[in-house]
Amino acid sequence: MSLLNHASPEVKAPQTLALEVKNLNFFYGKFQGLKDISLGIAEKKVTAFIGPSGCGKSTTLRMIAGLEMATSGQILIGGEDVTRLPATKRDVSMVFQSYALFPHMRVFENIRYGLEVGQLSAAEINERVSSIMRITGLEALGDRYPHELSGGQQQRVAVARALVIEPQVLLFDEPLSNLDAKLRRKVRQEIRDLQQSLGLTVIYVTHDQEEALAISDTIV
């Protein structure tokens, strides 16, 4: 993978890395899907992975998330080697292309789901969910089911559910591909605004060059 930094050209101090990938390799049976991938993800920035279908963007993302295990190499999050840890033990959260909302749960229940396996009390969970719903503009939609929401609202629920667990790194796998062009521009700006206001570290997978340039600080 190569890096293209399209931010301001002035010289800046080295940035803190939230995540590092070192010599990552992955095989599907005998087929090598990834070969010697190494990169560093800057803290509190958006890094976009861009390229055609099948080039390894989503596979790399899934290995960072712990949904696929690397054949060899290292993945470090906050300086900790998480290469062999399961997804539940990594401090990351992922927003999928399909949103993956639970159709039988209301918006509030969908968002709080990821907190129910932790050590928080019911009052703490409800407070955190209510807070993230205010931040993402969902406070009036808590009692609705996913089928009662627009595509943009469903996307915001998926983002809120990922944010509520307060991950070190937030992963997006082509999250806007199901939206029309006008709504896609609106929602990507909402994601960018949210990232900047909360100081989030984001990896954003897309095949759309315009989208990558609009939302990211660095492109891979």
Assembly category: single chain
**Classification by helices and strands:** alpha/beta
Cα end-to-end separation: 6 Å
Instruction: Give the radius of gyration.
Output: 17 Å
- Output the number of helix runs: 6
Helical content band: 25-40%
Low-confidence stretches: 2-9
Main β-sheet, spatial strand arrangement: 1-10-4-9-8-7
H/E element sequence: EEEEHEEEHHHEHEHE
Number of strands: 10
Strand proportion, as a percent range, falls in 25-35%
Biggest sheet layout: 6 strands, mixed
Shape: globular
Average pLDDT over all residues: 89
Description:
This protein has about 220 residues and is of the alpha/beta class. Helices cover about 30% and strands about 25% of the residues. It has six helices and ten strands; from the N terminus they run ββββαβββαααβαβαβ. It has helices at about 55-65, 105-110, 120-135, 150-165, 180-200, 210-215; strands at about 5, 15-30, 30-40, 45-50, 70-75, 80, 90-95, 170-175, 200-205, 220. The strands form two sheets. It has a six-stranded mixed β-sheet with strand order 1-10-4-9-8-7, sandwiched between helices. A four-stranded antiparallel β-sheet has the order 3-2-5-6, covered by helices on one side. A hairpin with a 2-residue loop joins strand 2 (about 15-30) and strand 3 (about 30-40). Helix 4 (about 150-165) packs parallel to helix 5. It starts with a strand and ends with a strand. The relative contact order is 0.20. Residues about 1-10 have low confidence and may be disordered.
